[in-house]
Amino acid sequence: MTFDKLDLIEPILNALSHEGYTQPTPIQEISIPIVLKGHDLLGCAQTGTGKTAAFAIPILQLLQLNKGAERAPRKIKALIVTPTRELAIQIGESFAAYGRFMNLRHTVIFGGVPQGAQVGALKMGVDILIATPGRLLDLQTQGYVKLNELSIFVLDEADRMLDMGFIHDVKKLIKIIPAKRQSLFFSATMPESIRVLAGSILTNPEEVAVTPVSTTAETIQQEMYFVDAVNKKDLLIHLLQDKSIKTALVFTRTKHGADKVQRLLTKARIKAEAIHGNKSQNARQNALRNFKDRTTRVLVATDIAARGIDIDDLNLVINYEIPNIPETYVHRIGRTGRAGLDGKAVSFCDAEEHEYLRDIQKLISIQIPVIKDHPFPAENMPVVGKSKSKSKPNQNIRQPNPNKPKITHNRAPISKAATDSAAEPRKVIAPPVKNEAPAKPVVSKKFWGRK
User: Fold this and answer.
1) Any residues with CB less than 8 A from the CB of 240 and at least 6 apart, and which?
2) What global pTM score does this model have?
3) How far is the C-alpha of 53 from the C-alpha of 50, rounded, in Å?
4) For 226-241, how does the pLDDT look when each residue is reduced to its tens digit (9 = 90+)?
5) Residue 349, Cβ neighbours under 10 Å: how many?
6) Angle between the 354-364 and 326-333 helix axes, to the nearest 10 degrees?
């Protein structure tokens, strides 16, 4: 399955090609047609499965096809609500990437910063608004956010919303937005409390569930360095002084961060290039070719840009910044230790990243060994997991799970109360997935639409 089989319009296909994407992930392959048909969607999927594109792509297409020649100020047609600033920014970047060849405008609003710039963007008019709950309700109360013409509503990371105490804000928001709308609801877990909330938002939804990758290959030696953020650059250069490291793939969370790390390595006379979404496709391909040919020793990448990297003899992966999504860690370090070869994954953890580390270790069910013997130890850093003074082969990596990940698609009811009248749910299950490529779902030929 390729994106051009999903009935997507030319501007979106061109944007996907520009980003280097040709094949949808399982959740994208099943969810995009559902959303394009105007159905509500209940998605049980964590960030890292491709779910942002699963809703961003069809939203862009629906808005583009329904866009009139109006000259009046743009009205908010789509609203995406997510619990954190970082997630909101990442979603905004996705809309920018997939909508780069379309005349649609989006903006991101979140708390913790002055509202002036955000209010200015809203006054200019936007088609798509990505927001955190608190700032959204605040600006709505002030009259800067008007949702009376909203047609598509997305609630992302619903279980995290509840964990962070946003449930009351979400309930307030539901009362404000139009009752006649298309709603998309995503949650990493689906306990009864989440299903009850979903039941108050969705109407006769399709349900798609994804079990993400959660194990690491046994051939990968993992190590953790606790280091203050200001000393990460020095620790990176220190580690790369080891001439036995022929190639290293360094991950950052942002495009700006990738460029910054590339510049400091170049200044230290370490041959490095960066790839991210702001680089042209030719520039990314040239950098990747130089890295594979070992003309470039270090490749600095963001997660999205690194999607196509497939190098069997990669020596080392370095998480310069720990990912905020646990599954992303698994995908990152899966770039090494391939084809039965040994690999090594090193992570730098500062004080603000401890929560991310905790989530990663919970997902992979191991404690990553800590390296204490290095020149830049962090101050006042709590010990997490096992420590060791020298690198040794890692014996505590779980065996890979042959059944990861899978995806199911049901026409099942979303709450237990409705099960008595429900028909037997149909399911779609994808075959096992390798680290490097998304699964190709085995989709039933039966029509999944409303009866």
Assistant:
1) 248, 265, 268, 270, 297, 298
2) 0.61
3) 6
4) 999 999 999 999 999 9
5) 24
6) 70
What is the rounded average pLDDT for all residues in the chain?
83
Question: Is 267 buried (19+), middle (13-18) or exposed (0-12) by CB count in 10 A?
Answer: exposed
User: What is the reported pLDDT for 11?
Assistant: 97
Confidence of residue 402 (pLDDT cuts 50, 70, 90): very low
Cα 182 from Cα 201, distance rounded (Å): 10
Q: How many CB atoms lie within 10 A of CB 289?
A: 11
Query: Where do we find the tokens 């698609």?
Result: 409
Residue 307's pLDDT band, with cuts at 50, 70 and 90, is low
Q: Look at residue 358 and tell me whether its pLDDT is greater than 70.
A: yes
- Across residues 315-325, what is the average pLDDT? 93
Phi, psi (5° rounding) for residue 81?
-110, 130
Q: Which domains does the chain have, with CATH numbers?
A: 3-213+403-421 (3.40.50.300), 220-388 (3.40.50.300)
Please name the residue that has the structure tokens 């798509």. Answer: 128
Mean pLDDT of 336-351: 86
3-state secondary structure the chain: CCHHHCCCCHHHHHHHHHHCCCCCCHHHHHHHHHHHCCCCEEEECCCCCCHHHHHHHHHHHHHHHCCCCCCCCCCCCEEEECCCHHHHHHHHHHHHHHCCCCCCCEEEECCCCCCHHHHHHHHHCCCEEEECHHHHHHHHHCCCCCCCCCCEEEECCHHHHHHCCCHHHHHHHHHHCCCCCEEEEEECCCCHHHHHHHHCCCCCCEEEEEECCCCCCCCEEEEEEECCHHHHHHHHHHHCCCCCCCCEEEECCCHHHHHHHHHHHHHCCCCEEEECCCCCHHHHHHHHHHHHCCCCCEEEECCCHHHHCCCCCCCEEEECCCCCCHHHHHHHHCCCCCCCCCEEEEEEECHHHHHHHHHHHHHHCCCCCEECCCCCCCCCCCCCCCEECCCCCCCCCCCCCCCCCEEEEECCCCCHHHHHHCCCCCCCECCCCCCCCCCCCECCCCCCCCC
Check if the beta carbon of residue 261 is closer than 8 Å to that of residue 252.
yes
Per-residue pLDDT for 47 more than 50? yes
Of 114, 94, 101, the residue nearest 154 (C-alpha): 94
